[in-house]
Specification:
38% of the residues lie in helices and 7% in strands. The protein is built from seven helices and three strands; from the N terminus they run ααααααβββα. The two termini are 50 Å apart.
């Protein structure tokens, strides 16, 4: 059957001083069904997923990832999983994002100051797309397309 992060589900039950039977009562299903579900022997339905998230007080996305057996964050098969909490290491200062206001114009070139005070020459592509696309306030990008217009555009 499907991989499921059984340990995470049982930790959530322990944190809340709940049992499989308590979760089963909340879901209105038989306790054996919940037990099989948490072992990966039975699939969790979308409705059950939503209710489990409500029972644990966590996001639906968290339960969805755990029901698929996925750890949160990015990962590859030959390295340790990347977790967002690991990204902000205590021994490293936070990264500063550069903006157009940080650009220094000198000798006809564009430069930025590194944290150690050195000047770094900017690549010509830096900022080249700024202001190239303006979306009017009244444009709804989620609206369905006009089929006749798209046919005319692509077929003529």
């Amino acid at each position: 059957m499907t991989p499921i992060d059984t340990a995470w589900f049982h930790r959530q039950l322990d944190i809340r001083n709940q049992s499989v039977r308590g979760l089963a009562r909340f879901l209105s299903v038989d306790p054996s069904a919940v037990s099989r579900m948490l072992k990966g022997e039975r699939k969790m339905s979308a409705e059950e997923q939503d209710n489990v998230a409500a029972f644990f007080g966590v996001s639906i996305e968290e339960v969805a990832a755990r029901r698929r057996g996925e750890a949160p964050g990015f990962s590859e098969t030959k390295q340790e999983p990347y977790l967002a909490a690991d990204a902000a290491r205590k021994d490293e200062p936070a990264m500063k994002m550069f903006t157009q206001a940080d650009v220094i114009y000198k000798d006809g070139k564009r430069w930025m100051e590194a944290p150690d005070g050195r000047l770094l020459e900017l690549h010509p592509a830096f900022g080249c797309m700024a202001g190239t696309m303006t979306i009017p306030d009244d444009l709804d990008l989620t609206a369905p397309i006009d089929v006749e217009w798209s046919d005319k555009l692509y077929n003529e």
